[in-house]
């Protein structure tokens, strides 16, 4: 089986920084895109940032210039560096990856369990 495990959430004051990491493990054959989503209370889950296996990135307008996504293909990890955090960034952040399990032919969409990020004003 394939698993995604996030780490790095927590409580920070506005203007501060946090770094989220996500590690994939299990019967991994190959990756496509990896990314981060977030869901605030009472809101739908939304894309924060995504990175292709070629390194191309895309960000939500609300985080451009403040967040940076990166990946280490050798270590099967994706990281989200969050700077200049705002109270509006408060949410549960989820790691997402398109992974082909070595037992199968097609890619599947996998999610982490989520990590809470709280930004106080």
Give your account of this protein's structure.
The chain has 121 residues and is mainly beta. The protein has strands at 2-7, 10-13, 18-26, 28-39, 46-51, 57-59, 67-72, 77-82, 91-101, 108-111, 115-120. Strands 2, 4, 5, 6, 9, 10 and 11 form a seven-stranded mixed beta sheet that branches.
What string, H for helix and E for strand, traces the elements in order? EEEEEEEEEEE
Distance between the termini: 41 Å
Helices, by number, come to: 0
What is the helix content? under 10%
Main pleated sheet: 7 strands, mixed
Radius of gyration: 14 Å
Q: Oligomer, anyone? A: single chain
Low-confidence stretches: none
User: On the 0-100 scale, what is the average pLDDT?
Assistant: 95
- Per the principal axes of the C-alpha atoms, what is the gross shape? elongated
* SS class: mainly beta
Number of strands: 11
Pick out its properties.
single chain; 121 residues; mainly beta; seven-stranded mixed beta sheet; four-stranded antiparallel beta sheet
Brief account:
With 121 residues, the protein is mainly β. Helix content is 0%, strand content 60%.
